[in-house]
Amino acid sequence: MATGSVEAVDSDGNITVEGDWEYRPLRIDGDVPRLTAAVRLAIQAEYSGWELSRVRLYPGGVRKVWLRRKRTGQMLPELSY
């Protein structure tokens, strides 16, 4: 993975669906500043309908983030990173 990158955690890129929600796990490297990570997540919330579900901070500063959004019948944009 490149320095300062954000990637989908699941290798096949699938969205997990549970009930009325769909979840997308992301991994944010420890060298990504907190403000940059917050801006990236805010953009996803604004334009793709995702909201923050959970964040775990690991040694080395790596963050594992779960985004969620309500399932709808219409097509919504995917994550862009």
SSE topology:
Layout (H helix, E strand, L loop, with lengths): L5 E3 L7 E3 L2 E8 L5 H15 L2 E7 L5 E8 L11
Antiparallel strand pairs: 1-3, 2-3, 3-5, 4-5
Quick overview:
This protein is of the alpha+beta class and 81 residues long.
Please state the CA-atom Rg, rounded to the nearest Å.
13 Å
Shape: globular
Query: How would you sum up the major sheet?
Result: 5 strands, antiparallel
Indicate the structural class.
Answer: alpha+beta
Residue share in helices?
Answer: 10-25%
First-to-last CA distance: 13 Å
Number of helices: 1
| Secondary structure tally: strands | 5
Q: Which stretches are low in confidence, meaning pLDDT under 50 for 5 or more residues running?
A: 5-9
Protein name: DUF5703 family protein
Pfam families: DUF5703
